[in-house]
Amino acid sequence: MMMHRLCRLTLRANGFHNNNAAALSRQQVRAYLGGAGDMISRRDNANKDEVAKREQELWDRAQPRYEEIMERHLRLPTAEKVANDSTGMNEEERNLAVRKKRLVYRSKQRGWLEVDLLLGTWAAENVSNLSVAELDEFEKFVNLETIDIYNVLTLRTDVPEDMRTAGGDGLVERIAQWAKESPLGKADQEKYVEVKTKNNLI
């Protein structure tokens, strides 16, 4: 009787061990990659892969067109690219008009709601009347980091020293003063909606 029980215990122990071994073996089989070796891109093996050869041929044909489209997408607009001009302006005037529109657009699309609202509104109302020298000054301001523009408009920092004037009436100083007096900084939802709609602020 004792011997029979001992045999049963031995068989159970061996069965448990064998089950664990089988489970471990299955895990090892699932993790084993065989002799696949390193992955090789089809393009790196194009001479031996018909699909890759056709893909490469299509890419070679499409690449010049792709580069042309990308260059045109990144290029800033100029008067020469204005297809339908019925304003009677000469080329210099058209270039100036394009520059003003570009600056207004950049002022509205900073990515910070407060800056878009304040700077975009000021630009929509005033950029069209700026002189070339003032446009240069405004573009210099617009080229600052958005957080620096935000700090100036919300009076957290002073106007940068190189944008100040002795009389305190420089362009950026006037913008800061306008922002200080503007009702846009107040929590007025109706005014906010009105200004966004009026100045086409998306």
Indicate the low-confidence ranges by residue numbers.
21-29
As a whole number of angstroms, the C-alpha radius of gyration is 35 Å
Distance between the ends: 90 Å
CATH topology of the domain at 92-198: DNA polymerase, domain 1
Tell the overall outline: elongated
Mind telling me which CATH architecture of the domain at 92-198 this is? Orthogonal Bundle
CATH homologous superfamily descriptor of the domain at 92-198: Flavinator of succinate dehydrogenase
The helix-strand sequence is: HHHHHHHH
Structural class by helix and strand composition:
mainly alpha
Mean pLDDT: 75
CATH top level of the domain at 92-198? Answer: Mainly Alpha
Give the helix proportion (percent range): 55-70%
- Strand proportion: under 5%
Biggest β-sheet description: none
InterPro entries: SDH, SDH_sf
Protein name: Succinate dehydrogenase assembly factor 2, mitochondrial
Keywords: Chaperone, Mitochondrion
Would you kindly provide a written description of the structure presented here, covering whatever features stand out?
The protein has a domain at 92-198: DNA polymerase, domain 1 (Orthogonal Bundle), CATH 1.10.150. Helix content is 63%, strand content 0%. It has eight helices and no strands. Helix 3 runs antiparallel to helix 4, helix 3 (91-108) packs parallel to helix 5 and helix 4 crosses helix 6 (146-153).
Q: Brief overview, please?
A:
The chain has about 200 residues and is mainly alpha-helical.
Jot down its keywords.
202 residues, mainly alpha, DNA polymerase, domain 1, 8 helices, 63% helix, elongated, Succinate dehydrogenase assembly factor 2, mitochondrial, chaperone
